Amino acid sequence: MIRRRDLVVGGGALMLGGCDRVLEVPAAKRLLFSGENFHRGLHRAITDRSALAREYAAEDLSPVFRVNGNNNPGTPEYQALAANGFVDWRLQVGGLVDRPLALSLAQLRSMPLREQITRHDCVEGWSAIGRWTGPMLGTILHAASVRRSANYVVFRCADRYPNGRNYYESIDMVDAWHPQTIVALGLNGRLLDIGHGAPARLRVERQLGYKHAKYLMGIDAVASLDGIGLGRGGFWEDHYDYDWYAGI
Ligand SMILES: Nc1nc2c(c(=O)[nH]1)N[C@H]1C(S)=C(S)[C@@H](COP(=O)(O)O)O[C@H]1N2
Ligand SMILES: [Mo]
């Protein structure tokens, strides 16, 4: 469900106005693995990459949403941006686009925003349900006039790991245009905190946690993943043999 939400800034926190509307799980998804529909459901699960991830109700929200992986990029550049409430931060959108963009937080917040309550699944064996808010990646790609030659979108992050490598991730255009793939600015009605990836992080709801790049600095549309990092499409993929496609 896509709708425009007003984000009200108060006391440094981003709060969502209006009622807490419960999102409906489409009946087709509920039936996916039930009884006689099992085989059809399995077939759909394997072939239908555009299907929606399950969305939950407000009462399903996890009381605590764990912070995992890096919890603060900690670089002087990032510290300076954070100290100033990220007003000087820009999301660079480039690569195979006709109109490269440098989007401020205010510009991102003025786009149509999507809100979704979804479950995050980490390979380390924990899950959490949270309410994420932000513009669809598709809206941003459209604003930048992404070219047809783009096959992947690469996400560059502010944080490094002890091996000196920056975190990065990538997805294909099926996930890039998926309606639940958003550049999240808020979690549970507040602006993202630093632990969860301030000021913006990817949500790609049909995939596992490590695909959801935090601390976004840039988004690049590319034809191939060759020559980016070690060429396997992400930090964990390059260094720890994780699968590039981590569908759930
Ligand atoms: N930039 C960046 N993004 C990242 C990570 C990270 O270390 N750095 N960790 C990933 C992993 S493994 C998970 S499970 C989630 C954790 O998100 P959370 O801290 O909001 O729970 O972020 C993912 N995105
Ligand atoms: Mo994870």
Automatic annotation (TrEMBL):
Record-linked InterPro entries: OxRdtase_Mopterin-bd_dom, OxRdtase_Mopterin-bd_sf
Pfam family, one: Oxidored_molyb
Coiled coil: none
Limits of the Oxidoreductase molybdopterin-binding domain: 88-221
PROSITE patterns per UniProt: PROKAR_LIPOPROTEIN (PS51257)
Protein name stated in the entry: Molybdopterin-binding protein
Protein's organism: Sphingomonas lenta
Organism classification: Bacteria, Pseudomonadati, Pseudomonadota, Alphaproteobacteria, Sphingomonadales
